[in-house]
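Data card: per-record layout.
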Amino acid sequence: MRETTIKGLRTFALAAAAVMLPLTAGAALNPEETLEKANIENGKNIYFNGKGDVPACASCHGQEGLGDDAMGTPRLAGQSFTYIRKQLHDYAADKRMDTTMFVMNANAKGLSEQDIIDVAAFVYQWDQPPTGSDLKAVAELGQPVGKRYLGKALVIYGAPERGITSCYACHQYNGRGAYPIYPQLTGQKYVYLVNQLKKWRDGSRANDPMGQMQAVARNMSDDDIHNVAAYLTTAPLTTMGNSFVPKHEIP
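The structure for this 251-residue chain is written out next.
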């Protein structure tokens, strides 16, 4: 059952690539060509200093792009160029609404297409090892914390009898990412993971390829969400008995 489901979702991934790459009318379809046009220094300057009315990305996402549980902001370091660019486009077009800090829609609208390319390229080349949440500190914030071992089972195997596909099916082993479509979940902040899964579940976030995340999250209980988040935020990138971590290259 799991193998059949994984094969089906990998087929979805190929179709999703065709959907996600043409981000806006006139946008380059080849992310590698677009990266060649990126001004990394401009992206770095916007990230750390902001631009005009757009504040510095670092003010919410941190100096190393690792996110913040107290603020509910995500880790950006380790994500792909295509994914970051798409999210900024979706915020600018109000296809995704920021209900965390309530600033991303206005911020994205304040960036030009070149600025978006530059920021996404800066984040993409920023190679940081996965540094997830301290679950004890998360509990001290008053957040319910799930059980890692139960989350691991859902991440790797899913629960097909309940309509929950494994995270592995799309995001690869331990959610380490399947670029350029599926983002890295390993080392993502716990609070952000919980909040996004709940938003996928209630439909307040709906910018996923072909509604895949919404379909899965609708079948997850609060306990499922807390358990999965507890495992993913602390999961290793490597597989058992193999210290090799695949490089995330743009195809």
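Known properties of this structure: Confidence is low (pLDDT under 50) at residues 1-29. Residues 32 and 250 are 7 Å apart (CA to CA).

See the next section for split statistics.
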